[in-house]
Amino acid sequence: MTEWMTAPGLTDYLEAVAFMEVRAAAIAAGTAGELVWLVEHPPLYTAGTSARAADLLNARFPVHETGRGGQYTYHGPGQRVVYVMLDLNRRGRDVRAFVKALESWVIDALAEFNLRGEIRDGRVGVWIARPDKTPLPDGSMREDKIAAIGVKLRKWVSFHGISINVEPDLDHYSGIVPCGISGHGVTSLVDMGLPVGMEDLDLALRATFTRHFPPFEG
After folding, report:
1. Which of 33, 49, 54, 75 is the most exposed place for a label (fewest CB within 10 A)?
2. Any long-range contacts for 184-187 (C-beta under 8 Å, 24+ apart)?
3. What is the DSSP annotation of the chain?
4. CA angle 36-42-47, nearest 5°?
5. CA-closest candidate to residue 151, choices 139, 163, 141, 142
6. Phi, psi at residue 208, to the nearest 5°?
7. With a threshold of 0.85, does the pTM exceed it?
8. Over the stretch 48-94, which tens digit does the pLDDT of each residue have?
9. Mean pLDDT lowest for which of 23-37, 95-109, 128-142, 176-190?
10. Please, are residues 86 and 152 in contact by the beta-carbon 8 Å criterion?
11. Is 179 part of the annotated catalytic residue set?
12. Catalytic residue among 179, 186, 196, 204
């Protein structure tokens, strides 16, 4: 059974990374079980392994280089960060399938609030179509990102994970080009007009988790 833990208040980013390093090593060694850790961070930017310097427009908050995949992203109050420390040795050593399962999990959790999340080829994360906004210059519909995904594997144990916007200050994204993608924007559950709090999202995440990450057999 995967353990769940919720951190109170705001969690220091470097302390969170240190905790994940220790727990992931223990999972790989067989001395600890899987963990889903729910946190919120103070405002900060993180740079993934594919981050481009030009995408850091204004370092208005601390910037942390991290070993997860992806580019620049923002973390801050009102955003649920979901750190997933799962044993892919027992869940199939398939990185693409793992990322797809994370995306599908987020989509199912959003569906609990009748919100349709979608994935797009070439754009990791979960997106919301915005027909209410002015189309892009090429006439295509604008889409806003509501969830980012960036994971790291060591000995086939995952850490880092997902961030889902509940009610963060969306202006804080202005210091970066989120995930290196221009033209489209970012949104949140509250920005979409949903009266959803952090606890509501946590319940939805728990309710949909085992659809994509079932308990081990045997």
Report:
1. 54
2. 184/127, 184/136, 184/142, 184/143, 184/144, 184/145, 185/130, 185/133, 185/142, 185/144, 185/145, 186/144, 186/145, 186/146, 187/128, 187/130, 187/144, 187/145, 187/146
3. --EEEE--SPPPHHHHHHHHHHHHHHHHHTSS--EEEEE---SEEEE-TT--GGGB----S-EEE-SSSSSEEEE-TTEEEEEEE-BHHHH-S-HHHHHHHHHHHHHHHHHTTT---EEETTEEEEEEE-TTSPPPTTSPPPEEEEEEEEEEEETTEEEEEEEEESS--GGGGGGB-GGG--S-EE--TTTTT----HHHHHHHHHHHHHHHSPPPP-
4. 75
5. 163
6. -110, -5
7. yes
8. 888 888 889 999 999 998 878 778 889 999 999 999 999 999 999 99
9. 176-190
10. no
11. yes
12. 179
Query: Burial, 59: exposed, middle or buried (Cβ in 10 Å; 0-12, 13-18, 19+)?
Result: exposed
Q: Which residue has the tokens 């973390």?
A: 75
Place of tokens 């729910």: 38
Amino acid 195 reads P
